[in-house]
Design brief:
The chain has 372 residues and is α+β, with helices and mostly antiparallel strands. The chain folds into three domains: 134 residues, MutS, DNA mismatch repair protein, domain I (3-Layer(aba) Sandwich), CATH 3.40.1170; 59 residues, 5' to 3' exonuclease, C-terminal subdomain (DNA polymerase, domain 1, Orthogonal Bundle), CATH 1.10.150.20; 121 residues, Dna Ligase, domain 1 (2-Layer Sandwich). It contains 14 helices and twelve strands. It has a five-stranded mixed β-sheet with strand order 5-6-1-7-8. Strand 10 and strand 11 form a beta hairpin. Helix 4 crosses helix 5, helix 10 packs across helix 11 and helix 12 packs antiparallel against helix 13. The longest helix is centred in the last third of the chain and has 19 residues. It starts with 5 loop residues before the first strand and ends with a helix. The relative contact order is 0.09. It binds a DNA duplex (18 and 18 nucleotides) through helix 3, helix 8, strand 9, strand 11 and strand 12.
DNA sequence: TCTGGGGTCCTAGGACCC
DNA sequence: TCTGGGGTCCTAGGACCC
């Protein structure tokens, strides 16, 4: 008996936010449901987070203004976005996936990769689907591939609720003539640049010399694009939980804020609020950035490094204001955002007092004391 | 269709140093 | 005095994704 073949499975929940809402309000089943903003489609500056398939049938899409969604689907039920509920539902689902005792890499609220050694990956996928629906009441699609890109692409064919497979030897047969922009990771800007190089299809991309791509896209992205054209790289499923690099909040105001003093005050409050949120995790803040958008959609970010990493809300807020004051604002503000960046976690060991840090950490301590 | 919020990673260019 | 070359740190912005 040989070793079973290695597969990557991509699990993607169907219409996740809408499904979570329907699960707790079963009377909504079968109705068009639109989740987004505060759930009031008459208020501007709010967009659709997720539309149920019934709403999608009327042309409602993610990212569309709620007002437009209501125009397209007047009978839809509009619901406010309820993050804590989706966080909790996501945790339920991921827990079911982890119960299979395979590496699980969480991609977001409603997606994960699984690393599976099996001679019958479809059977495994069916077991996953069955377990998820039995234990959470939510349905999902599963894609199977040799790479993450292939698995993710197959999921697109499996939605909603089915299983599909795309392997290395079928890649060009099934995607060779497709536009390069069909590939996960190639957005509109990159697709446009590729077209300017005469690269239109996936096959074109796979045949392009990596040096040519590097010249246009840089030494990392260029060669990576070619790998995408070839069906993806061998990046493994990483079960280690991701450590957040930072945390941010931003808010688009229903009407623009004309008073700079008011805006400044909000920067202060947002910064303090962020640090209060993050402090229990013990991650000290090293940088703070402020984002501003005006009515014309002019959007800029300013950032700065704190004199020293800190958990003190007042210190972070003060620095946020220093950064904010570098804007020369003469117009009303549509959006305000604040982002904090955390220091690198001390690798492999719990947080240590700087005075007693050893080894690699000690080097960091030396370097930081040498800064002017 | 007047355009959300929360992330990640990469690149460019200036400052500064040797 | 016409001007090197490399390295690192830092900030701003681009691009993409869910």
């Amino acid at each position: 008996m040989g070793t079973p073949r290695e597969w990557i499975l991509h699990v993607d929940l169907d219409q996740f936010l809408a499904a979570v809402e329907v699960r707790r309000r079963p009377e909504l089943a079968g109705r068009p449901v639109v989740v987004g903003g505060d759930g009031d489609p008459t208020r501007p500056r709010q967009v659709v987070a997720t539309a149920s398939y019934e709403a999608r049938a009327h042309g409602v899409r993610s990212g569309m203004p709620l007002r437009t969604a209501q125009r397209r689907c007047p009978d839809a039920v509009f619901l406010p976005s309820d993050r804590p509920a989706y966080d909790a539902a996501s945790a339920e689902v991921m827990s079911v996936l982890r119960s299979f005792d395979v590496p699980v890499e969480v991609l977001g609220w409603d997606e994960a990769f699984l690393g599976v050694a099996s001679d019958d990956p479809e059977a495994f996928a069916e077991q996953v689907k069955a377990a998820v629906v039995e234990r959470t009441g939510l349905t999902c699609a599963v894609g199977i591939g040799d790479t993450k890109l292939q698995a993710k692409t197959a999921t697109g064919w499996a939605k909603p609720g089915a299983v599909a497979r795309l392997t290395r030897d079928e890649w060009f047969e099934r995607l060779g003539d497709a536009p390069a922009s069909d590939i996960w990771g190639i957005g509109p800007r990159t697709a446009e640049k590729l077209r300017a190089l005469g690269i239109h299809t996936v096959l074109d991309l796979a045949r392009t010399d990596h040096a040519e791509l590097a010249a246009t896209f840089g030494p990392t992205i260029g060669p990576h694009l070619r790998l995408l054209g070839l069906g993806g790289d061998d990046d493994p499923v990483r079960a280690e939980p991701r450590v957040a690099k930072g945390r941010s909040h931003e808010e688009t105001f229903t009407t623009d804020l004309p008073d700079p003093a008011d805006v400044r005050d909000r920067v202060d409050r947002m910064a303090r609020g962020l640090v209060d949120e993050v402090a229990p995790e013990g991650r000290r803040v090293t940088h703070v950035a402020v984002k501003v958008r005006t009515a014309s959609f002019w959007t800029r970010t300013r950032s700065g490094k704190l004199p020293a990493p800190t958990l003190d809300p007042a210190a972070v807020a003060a620095h946020a204001l220093v950064v904010f004051d570098r804007f020369e604002l003469d117009r009303p503000v549509r959006l305000l955002g604040v982002r904090v960046t955390f220091e690198e976690p001390a690798s492999g060991s719990p947080p240590t007092d700087p005075g007693t840090a050893a080894g690699g950490e000690h080097q960091d301590a030396i370097r930081s004391t040498m800064e002017p």
